[in-house]
Write a structure and sequence with these properties.
By secondary structure, this protein is an alpha+beta fold. The chain has 2 helices and 5 strands, in the order ββββαβα.
Length: 101
C-alpha cells in the first residue's frame, strides 16, 4: 500500500578540487510499505520541504548554490537516506545531523 512519507537525505557533493558541500534535505512523497522486509520502498518525491547546503560548516545560501555552484559539485555520495513516516520525525533527525556538522 502506498503511504505518504518523508525522505531525509545527507549527501556529500564533491568538485574536481576535492572540496565538499554537504546537502541535507527533506522531501515529501509516497512509498510502498513492504510487509516482508518491514520497510518502505520505491520512494516517489512530490516536493522538497527543505534543502540546505554547507561548506566547511557554514551554510550556503540556496540562491548561490543553484546559481551555478551546483554545477561544480557533480560527484555525490549519499551518506544517509531515511524514509520516515512523519515530517516531525524527519525534522528531528535532520537536527541531529546538523548538530554533527
Amino acid at each position: 500500500m502506498k503511504k505518504e512519507v518523508f525522505l531525509l537525505e545527507k549527501i556529500n557533493r564533491y568538485n574536481h578540487n576535492g572540496d565538499t558541500v554537504v546537502e541535507i534535505s527533506i522531501s515529501k512523497g509516497f512509498a510502498l510499505w513492504d510487509e516482508n522486509y518491514e520497510e518502505y520502498q520505491n520512494f516517489e518525491r512530490s516536493d522538497y520541504i527543505s534543502e540546505r547546503f554547507f561548506k566547511d560548516g557554514v551554510e550556503i545560501d540556496s540562491d548561490e548554490w543553484f546559481g551555478g555552484m551546483d554545477e561544480d559539485y557533480e560527484e555525490a555520495d549519499w551518506e544517509e537516506e531515511s524514509i520516515l513516516s512523519s515530517v516531525d520525525e524527519a525534522k528531528k533527525n535532520e537536527q541531529k545531523i546538523l548538530e554533527e556538522l
